[in-house]
# Entry
Amino acid sequence: MIPLSHFMLISAALFCIGLYAVLTKRNAIQVLIGIEFMINAAILNFVAFGRFDRIAGGGQMFALFAIVLAAAGVAVALAIILNVYKHFRTINPDKIDTLKD
Amino acid sequence: MEVLSFSANALCLLSIIAVAFPFLSFLTIMLGRKSPGSAISIFNTSISFISSILVFISVWNGEPVQQQVEWFSIGSNVFSAGILLNNLSVLMMVLVSGISVLVHIYSISYMKGDINIHKYWAYLGLFCFSMMGLVVSDSLLLIYMFWELVGFSSYLLIGFWFTKDAASQAAKKAFIMNRIGDIGFLTGLMIIYSQFGTFDIVKLFGSGGMIDSASIVDGIWISASTEMPVIWLTIAGIAFFMGAMAKSAQFPLHTWLPDAMEGPTSVSALIHAATMVAAGVFLLGRIYPLFDSVALNIITIIGVLTAFIAATIALTQNDIKRILAYSTISQLGFIIAAMGIGAYGESIFHLATHAFFKCLLFLAAGAVIHQLHHHKEQHNMEFDHQDIRMMGGLRKQMPVTFIAMCIAAAALAGLPFTSGFLSKDAILITSFEWAEGYHGFKKLVPYILTLTSWLTVFYIARLIFKVFFGKSRYTDLHEAPTSMTRILMILSFGSLFILFSFNPLSYDGSWILKGFAGAGVKGFDRLHLFIPAIVTVISLAIIFIAYKVYGGRAVQTFPEKGLLYRFSNRAWYFDSLYDFLFVRSTTALSRLSYKFDKLVVDGLVNLLATLTNIISEVADWFDRNIVDGLVNGLATLARKTGDFARQFQSGKLQHYLLTMLTLVVTFFILTYFI
# Structure
């Protein structure tokens, strides 16, 4: 049987790749992909922890919910990106700096 | 005479008219529009002359008239101002106003075409006003005021052609010289006032007045109220004489008069020959009882010295007006010396006759100068029209002027049948009589005076021969205008004996001498006979010599170089001496004080300034670096902090995320590893 720490390492690696993508990419779509990586790292953790839980199938339930939420989030995020593009004529997050006062 | 006797009030009114009318013409011309002003001036002067004559007729040899009003008072001291008419003042009134009328009329032609002619008339009016005022005042203080006014108007008239540098310099010189004398006058006034407490001439100098009743006991001069050492009496006399010295151009204050010839010739005739220079003598006459024997001796010495020095200078001058100026100084020396030896009446007598013939000499010289000047301008020639070497042979071209000048010159030389003969012999004879009683240097006085009168004969003969004899250089030179020659004729009449005495050869019958008490003739027949005879014979011989030397103009036998010639021609180097003594030393002193100022005073100030500068540099550095540094440092710190904090709010999503991550990681590390 594969030990839990292997799952944890893979999940951490996925999270780090996602974080890196979110922080460095010059394209909002790629940033979005980075976010998906991080969400999926968390889902992987749910599933791995569920295998060792006494309540059977709890982790997988949470994973299913999370997948749905991620899908919904992506839909919202894509809509935001579309609107940002309409407004700024770019989706490079570096060029968009109106968050400051 | 009965018809023309006036009451005292009327007389005072008349004399006020005589004084005030010239001033009126001054005011009208100065305040009015730019009109020539000749008519009003002559009218006013004539009024002045006529009222002077009326006053003269009723006062001469009669009771003196004095009227006064309270002028002002300081504390309990009351100062009065008023009019005093006695023989001396009425004689001077007639003399001044008479000569001034003649000069006014003469000036119409002489000053024709001058651009500032209205000022000329105004200044003449001011002068006549001050001179008449001086003559009739009864208070020394008033006399002092008019004295200053006379000096001032003389200054204006000398500098009338002020665009000429020499004229303005001469005006300044005259003014400054007169100021020196004025200091003397003022000193005298102060001494008199502190001793007697009044300026009233009658109270002071009248018979039985304060001066008479003041006594001298053991070297103390005692008046009714105060007393002081007797030396002050002498000093007062000398101080007043100093004032007279400046006005009457006596050695050593005489140098302004020759320079004053830069003014118009008519002015020279009026002011610097007949009237203003007489003011000094007039002052001496007014305060005569004040002088003690020391003061009188000084007056005599100064007078004799002046007469002699000026006569020797006049021998070699070449400017016609300068010769006459030195001659005036010399004659005034005679008059002053006569005052000094106690010949009061003779002195005034010579003053009166001198006024006429010297005025005539000047006006005749003015006619010559006027004609030569015109000739020069018509023919575009360049020469000095006052230089007697440029004249000669004018006898035929200007006959009237020639005759007038000859009469005046004869009067100056003291030849018989002229007025000068009478008055000059009066002075000479009195001086011989006076010297009889003395020993030592006083014996010399009459001889020097006689010698001077012979010198006078020589220089005036030289002038006549050089100007009128020989061959003329100019072909179409004409006689002066009739208005000028007419004046010359009137004055020529005034220079003859007939106006002053019916006997042409003896001054005993002269009415002016009789008018002044104490001038009685004392006898000494041998003097009365010999002196005029000897003087006249030698004078005639001198005229003959002068004719031989100058009349032919063939050879210049008189040496024009040599020590004596230069000494005389340069006027005994008085100007150079004064220049060296006073001007140079003053300049040197001022240069020295300038250096002191520059080095020490300025040095101190500059040192102080440098010190202050250095201190302020330090303060500035401290202020800039420490005080400002603190404030600026704080500000910089705040800015730097702000700049640093600002970096975090870039408005970029990824930066915020990075910051967040860093913080989370930091806290994580802090929590779990440290």
Chain B touches chain A at residues 649-654, 656-658, 661 (CB under 8 Å).
